[in-house]
Design a protein that fits this description.
The protein has 373 residues and is of the alpha+beta class. The chain is 28% helix and 38% strand. It folds into 4 domains: 100 residues, Beta Barrel (conserved putative lor/sdh protein from methanococcus maripaludis s2 fold); 89 residues, Efflux pump adaptor protein, beta barrel domain (Elongation Factor Tu (Ef-tu), domain 3); 50 residues, OB fold (Dihydrolipoamide Acetyltransferase, E2P), CATH 2.40.50; 62 residues, Helix hairpin bin (Helix Hairpins, Orthogonal Bundle), CATH 1.10.287. It contains 4 helices and 19 strands. The strands form 4 sheets. The chain has a 6-stranded antiparallel beta barrel.
């Protein structure tokens, strides 16, 4: 029994010593590996750092800006009756094109017509009375005051006729301008309240689109400027529009300016409410240096890492316009330079690099040429 106990104790001691040895080995190994890695990064020439690169090239640059917008009708209105009544007739078909002044909906006007006839009868009586009083005053049979009273009554009856005629006119709903009608939601015999929606009328011969741009484009916009529109509903068919107006007030929340363009839609290919992409072209510049945005090292002074003789060289740059994940380099680089696009966090001036990726072929030759310059 004692022998088994002693064997177990020896086994536990041996196992504990082995575990302590393993822990001590790993503890001493980690700092060594860390020091080795830092030494490699700190010593230029130890091991080259793998980076992705791209060669700077000059190309023609379209100076433009893009935005999104929604098409709207030149004129748009929802027709509503000004008085309540029962619909007597409907003079249009859904989706029809109507001219300005066309009668669209007629309400029952029996009461209004009767009021107008009554007012006209009273007006006739007032006119006859006024003429008779004029003759009597001329013959000194009637005072001037009585004539004035009859004149006032005449004017009152004239106003009553005008009021009755206006009420009768409100029983007719007419098109305020020419355009295309929508889909009606009422039928003959329906009783409608004043202000109830009857039908929408859209003038789509000309469309307008409102869009917003950053405030730094304010000085570059001018009335009559060409704007290009595209829509997913008609792919591959660009439409030309002209800048019509720019809002004089800048939105203080988004620091953006609102602009409006108009385009001819005589062919009726476009409809109000469609989503469009807007492109404003300011011109074209030649020999512009463009770089992928990921090549830029952010900071107080933007910079890039240029490869010269297989070594990294930090170069401050001045940036210009941005477009489609690319940025314009105004100063600091020239065509033919090779710059790092991925792996900048491992670099500093003088570190050896090894180019990989799409920009790798021909890096050495390009670097040599850049160094000679």
């Amino acid at each position: 029994m004692k022998k088994n106990t002693r064997s177990g104790f020896v086994f536990l001691v041996a196992f504990g010593l082995a575990a302590l040895g393993y822990v001590a080995f790993n503890a001493n190994r980690a700092p060594a590996a860390s020091v080795s890695s830092s030494a490699v990064a700190a010593e230029p020439g130890a091991f080259p750092v793998a980076v992705e690169v791209v060669k700077v090239s000059a190309s023609d640059f379209l100076d433009e800006v893009s935005a999104v917008g929604t098409l709207k009708s030149k004129e748009s209105v929802v027709l509503r009756p000004e008085i309540a009544g029962r619909i007597l007739s409907i003079g249009f078909k859904d989706g029809a094109v109507v001219a300005q002044g066309a009668r669209l909906v007629s309400l029952d006007a029996a009461v209004q017509e009767a009021e107008l006839q009554q007012a006209k009868a009273n007006l006739g009586l007032a006119e006859t009375s006024f003429k008779r009083n004029q003759e009597l005053v001329a013959k000194k049979f009637l005072s001037q005051q009585a004539l004035d009273i009859s004149l006032a009554n005449l004017k009152l009856q004239q106003a009553t006729v005008q009021l009755a005629a206006a009420k009768l006119a409100k029983t007719q709903v007419k098109a305020p301008f020419g355009g295309m009608l929508g889909l009606r939601n009422v039928s003959v015999g329906d009783y409608v309240k004043e202000g109830q929606d009857l039908i929408n009328l859209e003038d789509i011969s000309t469309l307008r689109v409102d869009f917003r741009l950053p405030e730094n484009y304010l000085g570059r916009l001018s009335q009559g400027q060409t704007v290009t529109l595209t829509t997913d509903a008609l792919p591959g068919q660009p439409f030309k529009a002209l800048l019509d107006a720019v809002d004089p007030m800048v939105d203080q929340n988004g620091r953006a300016i609102s602009a409006r363009a108009r385009l001819d839609n005589a062919a009726a290919k476009l409809r109000p409410g469609m989503f469009v992409r807007v492109r404003v072209l300011f011109g074209q510049r030649k020999n512009v240096l463009m770089l992928p945005e990921q090549a830029i090292v952010p900071g107080a002074q933007p910079a890039v890492f240029r490869i010269v003789d297989d070594k990294a060289q930090r170069v401050p740059v001045k940036l210009g316009l941005r477009r489609a994940a690319e940025v314009e380099v105004v100063d600091g680089l020239q065509a033919g330079d090779v710059v790092v696009t991925a792996g900048q966090l491992k670099l500093r001036d003088g570190v050896l690099v090894r180019a990989i990726g799409e920009g790798a072929p021909g890096v050495a030759a390009s670097a040599g040429a850049a160094g000679a310059k």
